[in-house]
């Protein structure tokens, strides 16, 4: 079993597809791996060999998961934010995570397991925090019209604000 690097870790409830989810996520993020997966034995309530719980690491962050069944589902109240250096990273994480899922607005998406993600370029933070409130508002309004964040389009909206 892996040793946690932090006392606090996200723990995710899956509908009996934890192993599939761990393989999906670790295929997307660098510095990722699947840790220990506890499997049912003949004495457990699940089919022998199926996963009960486990750990996986995504880009250095360890997650715990449990195959709890359909009793609980993910909601938008919890999401994971991926900070991206540039548009190519935004596109990579967006395309990878939304595959089999659905797009939302303002850089949000739900993956195929129903988990919400925010794919956010650092440039967006800079633009919506511009010291000129008109430019910051233009960036925010442009973002509100998007699904996937397109940095060039937000920069164009900010640049269109008269000096």
Number of strands: 8
Mean pLDDT: 94
User: Major sheet: order of its strands?
Assistant: 1-4-3-2
Structural class: alpha/beta
Protein name: Putative 3-demethylubiquinone-9 3-methyltransferase (Glyoxalase superfamily)
Pfam family, one: 3-dmu-9_3-mt
GO molecular function: methyltransferase activity
InterPro entries: 3_dmu_93_MTrfase, Glyas_Bleomycin-R_OHBP_Dase, PhnB-like
Spell out the blueprint of helices and strands.
Layout: E1 11-14, H1 18-28, E2 33-39, E3 51-58, E4 61-67, E5 79-84, H2 87-98, E6 102-103, E7 108-110, E8 116-121, H3 122-128, H4 133-144, H5 151-159
3D architecture notes:
There is one protein chain. The protein contains 5 helices and 8 strands. With 163 residues, the chain is an alpha/beta fold. The protein folds into 2 domains: 57 residues, Signal recognition particle alu RNA binding heterodimer, srp9/1; 81 residues, 2,3-Dihydroxybiphenyl 1,2-Dioxygenase, domain 1. The strands form 2 sheets. A 4-stranded mixed β-sheet has the order 1-4-3-2, covered by helices on one side. It has a 4-stranded mixed β-sheet with strand order 5-8-7-6. Helix 4 packs antiparallel against helix 5. It starts with 10 loop residues before the first strand and ends with a helix. 21% of the residues are buried. The mean pLDDT is 94. Keywords: Methyltransferase, Transferase, Ubiquinone. This is Putative 3-demethylubiquinone-9 3-methyltransferase (Glyoxalase superfamily). One of its GO terms (biological process) is methylation. InterPro entries: 3_dmu_93_MTrfase (IPR009725), Glyas_Bleomycin-R_OHBP_Dase (IPR029068), PhnB-like (IPR028973).
């Amino acid at each position: 079993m892996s040793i946690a690097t932090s006392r606090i870790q996200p723990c995710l409830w899956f509908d009996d597809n934890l192993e599939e989810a761990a393989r999906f996520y670790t295929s997307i993020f660098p510095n990722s791996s699947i840790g220990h997966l506890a499997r049912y034995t003949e004495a457990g309530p699940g089919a022998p060999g199926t996963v009960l719980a486990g750990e996986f690491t995504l880009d250095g962050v360890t997650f715990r998961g449990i195959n709890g069944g359909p009793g609980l589902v993910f909601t938008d109240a919890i999401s994971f934010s991926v900070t991206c250096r540039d548009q190519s990273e935004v596109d990579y994480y967006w395309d990878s995570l939304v595959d089999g899922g659905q797009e939302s607005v303002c850089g949000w998406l739900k993956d195929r397991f129903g988990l919400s993600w925010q794919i956010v370029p650092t440039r967006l933070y800079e633009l919506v925090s511009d010291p000129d409130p008109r430019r910051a508002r233009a960036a925010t309004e442009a973002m509100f019209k998007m699904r996937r964040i397109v940095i060039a389009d937000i920069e164009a909206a900010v640049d269109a604000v008269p000096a």
